[in-house]
Amino acid sequence: MDTIAQDITAEDIASAELLMGVDYTPEERALMVDTFEGQIAAALQLRAVHFDNAEPMACRFDPRLPGFVMPDAKDDLRWSDAKVDPLPDNDEDIAFAEVTRLSGWIAQGALTSRRLCEIYLERIERLGPQLECMATVTAELALAQADAADRLIAEGQYLGPLHGIPYVVKDLFDTAGITTGWGAEPFQDRVPDRDATVVVRLRDAGAVLLGKAAVGALAYNDIWYGGRSRNPWNLNEGSSGSSAGSASATAAGLCGFSIGTETLGSITSPSQRCGTTGLRPTYGRVPRTGAMALCWSMDKIGPICRSVEDTGLVLAAINGASSEDPSSIGAGLHCDMSKGIDGLRVGFLPEAFGAGATSVDHAALDAVRGLGAEVIELSLPDLPYNALMNVLYAEGAAAFQDLTLDGRDDLLTWQDAAAWPNVFRRARFLSAVDHVQLDRLRWKVMHAVDALFAQVDILIGPFNTGPMLVASNFTGHPCLHMRAGFFETTTRAPGGFGGGRVQIPTACADGKAFRVPQGISLWGKLFDEGSLLRLGAALEAALACHSERPSFPS
Question: Alpha-carbon distance 137 to 482, whole Å?
Answer without folding.
Answer: 27
